[in-house]
Amino acid sequence: MELSCGACTYHQIIEVGQQEEWKAFPSMLTYGMGNYTSALPFLFVPPYQEPIVSRQKITDSMRAYIIKTYHAHIDEIEEGWVPHQYDLFQCPCCLRISTHFWCALFLKTEIIEPVHQCEHDGSKLRRLSLSDIHQIQCPQCSNRELRIR
User: Fold this and answer.
1) pTM score, whole prediction
2) For residue 133, with 0-12 CB atoms within 10 Å meaning exposed, 13-18 middle and 19 or more buried, which class applies?
3) In what side-by-side order are the strands of the sheet with 146-148?
4) What b/e sequence results for 65-85 when a residue is b if at least 16 CB atoms lie within 10 Å of its CB, and e otherwise?
5) Which of 41, 71, 131, 142 is most exposed, with minimal Cβ within 10 Å?
6) For residue 26, is the peptide bond before it cis, meaning its omega torsion is within 30 degrees of 0?
7) What's the pLDDT tens digit per position in 63-98?
8) What mean pLDDT, rounded, does the chain reach?
9) Distance (Å, rounded) from C-alpha 63 to C-alpha 130?
10) In whole angstroms, what is the distance from residue 106 CA to residue 74 CA?
11) How many Cβ atoms sit within 10 Å of the Cβ of residue 139?
């Protein structure tokens, strides 16, 4: 998919949704089904090895936190079902838009979601809805004329 602005030359290739190679949650956060059972798949993994969902899409510390929380509360999660996909996020300060891994662990008392930070200024990123993309400010010109093709 391509994200572009009707008021300027901004365009970006984006990736949203689930990938075909992903299996059951949380296997895509590791190297596959057999490797997530320890709940600590990245504490000792060399940085040159890349998991199925890359480090550009979710940090190793957030990945480990999500997997540990999933295993700690698996009885609370209905049938072990966790919505998960690539989603668009925007920095509230510099307006940069990026794709990151999103999931939601629906627990009895709270909803656990990954927190992503802007690579440029460290601000907490906001998750965007594709249906509201026309209301989002363009990172280049600040107009609200973004479109998806």
Assistant:
1) 0.85
2) middle
3) 11-13, 2-5, 146-148
4) ebbebbeebeeebeeeebebe
5) 131
6) yes
7) 889 988 998 898 998 777 899 999 999 999 999 999
8) 86
9) 24
10) 10
11) 19
